[in-house]
Records
---
Amino acid sequence: MNTHKQMSEVVRIAIQKSGRLQEGSLKLLKDCGLNISNGKDQLKTQVSNFPVEVLFLRDDDIPQYIEDGVADAGIIGENVFTEKQKNGVIMKRLDFAKCRLALAVPRTTNYTGLAWFNGKNIATSYPNIVGNYLKMKNITAGIHEISGSVEIAPGIGLADAICDIVSTGSTLLSNGLKEVELVMQSEAVLIAGDLSMQKKKILEKLVFRIEAVQQARNNKYILLNCPNEAIESITQIIPGMKSPTILPLGKPGWSSLHSVVNENDFWEKIDQLKQLGAEGILVVPIEKMIK
Ligand code: PRT
Ligand code: ZN
């Protein structure tokens, strides 16, 4: 057995060279503790403290590179992964670059429902996704593939409607279009190709770290002072990971209570805590969280 070779296995992770996914991808890997020397003009960079090499590529090319085995894994939008129909699996949803792929029609259209699309022409950069969607819905429409500025297609008479990525909706609005059907939700995902056992293990280690980073991002550490009578009710509201830490205060009858609170229901819980007599509430970010 060639142990030396096994020791030196490195997982090549492709991320977007420039664009909307680049910053979030780099930040996530760095938050996972990977020491990446940031080289915007570089094609690839070695990570000094984890068996990973980062490749910087166009997002559209990443699925093909993974299928070919040039990259082992990659971070791309789920929309691109689904559209390219290459070999690979989603290892982890990454909770950033959230958007949706939607069908949109000119604002003045009297849109009556999906059947409206029968016999119409749809411009899109996502012909496979749109094709499958229409098939599933039993709609027969023409698909006109264009690679950019899809939103101008109806205005210049190239198509009756479009299917494109929407985030705030302002691009549709400023091009006189309205969103009528949701085709798919998307976010950045970590995908992987066929991997050796050792590479799989390395990637699983990274996924473990990603989960710790995600949990930390979704939670806050909370410290507060409360009268001892309120400890039980407060514990029910912010039970934390196992139970809160409770320390006596110098002032008799009072305690300091430390716990973890989820970002989503944070403000609601703060109101409840105040009503129960909590004072001096401090809320601080958590860097990593392992359950
Ligand atoms: O050069 P390269 O090929 O690498 O990059 P790219 O130009 O193909 O991709 P890029 O960087 O624009 O987007 C990369 C990924 O980000 C996409 O595949 C999506 O998964 C994700 N993402 C998230 C978005 C958006 N939000 C988004 N708003 N991608 C594009 N947009 C565009 C959309 O095309 C439309 O023109 O923004 C406009 C809509 O935005 P709103 O806010 O006006 O609705
Ligand atoms: Zn692209």
---
Amino acid sequence: MTVRAGIGYDSHRLVAGRSLVLGGVELESELGLEGHSDADVLTHAVIDALLGAAGLGDIGIHFPDSDERYRDADSIELLVVAVALVRAAGYTIVHVDTTLALETPKLGGARERIRARLARALALNASAVNVKATTGEAIGFVGRREGVAALAIVTVDG
Ligand code: MG
């Protein structure tokens, strides 16, 4: 077996009138993420990391935002499709680590709900999925609450 790693990064703009969905979990927030799908920035980063580890390109190739099928899409459903693609390519997903960069709200108890939601979509134990969060310290687009960014790294065997 050969261990391979994939990295994923995404960011979305924060706007009024949209919900804030992170890792498939909706958080209480006056601002939400703008995008063609549900704009779940964390799940998008995980999808890109998965595709990267398997050498399968990126999220825009598989789920183009020009495609009306993906308007307001539940990104967790896209993640499930990406997991199937990675498995079909002969890889076993081992571990996922993530970092969210958002100023507010604090994740609090949602952290474990996000972890469980991602783990279920990835068909992994929650112990193989980690969710970290950091603020922007009031600087940059994260700190000014203009957007949210996410990073993910996925390890696969294959
Ligand atoms: Mg995205």
